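ok new one. same drill as before - structure tokens go in, u give me an amino acid for every spot. 126 of them this time. try not to just spam alanines like last time pls lmao
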């Protein structure tokens, strides 16, 4: 049995493409990984609080970028992100945020991710 066959505390990460594989296999940074984790699971776990956490991580990433001490790290190929979105039934804003965070090259990409997460947060109470 492998690590992907076990989950402690729920089933919100289950799927043929698991979040940690997406992050680790493509060298995505810690802040991006945390933000995308919360975006992926928010509907299945902690709702609006997960989206608020995701925004917090993006805000820290923006802060570090603006200080000149953070650059993009790995990039997940778009076909892998599309498969991930399909497996986890992500909507357009969830997919937009995750794509922006897993393939960012500039501040505008990070702002786009933050905007997508903010749009999700507006609907989280519905």
């Amino acid at each position: 049995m492998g690590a992907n066959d076990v989950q402690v505390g729920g089933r919100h990460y289950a799927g043929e493409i698991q979040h940690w594989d997406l992050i680790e296999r493509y060298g995505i940074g810690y802040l991006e990984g945390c933000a995308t984790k919360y975006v992926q699971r928010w509907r299945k776990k902690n709702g609006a609080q997960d989206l608020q956490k995701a925004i917090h991580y993006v805000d820290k990433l923006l802060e570090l970028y603006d200080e000149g001490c953070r650059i993009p790290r790995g990039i997940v190929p778009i076909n892998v992100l599309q498969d991930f979105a399909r497996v986890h039934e992500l909507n357009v804003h969830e997919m937009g945020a995750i794509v922006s965070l897993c393939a960012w090259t500039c501040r505008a990409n990070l702002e786009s991710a933050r905007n997508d997460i903010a749009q999700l947060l507006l609907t989280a109470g519905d």
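The two ends are 39 Å apart (CA to CA). and btw The chain has six helices and no strands.
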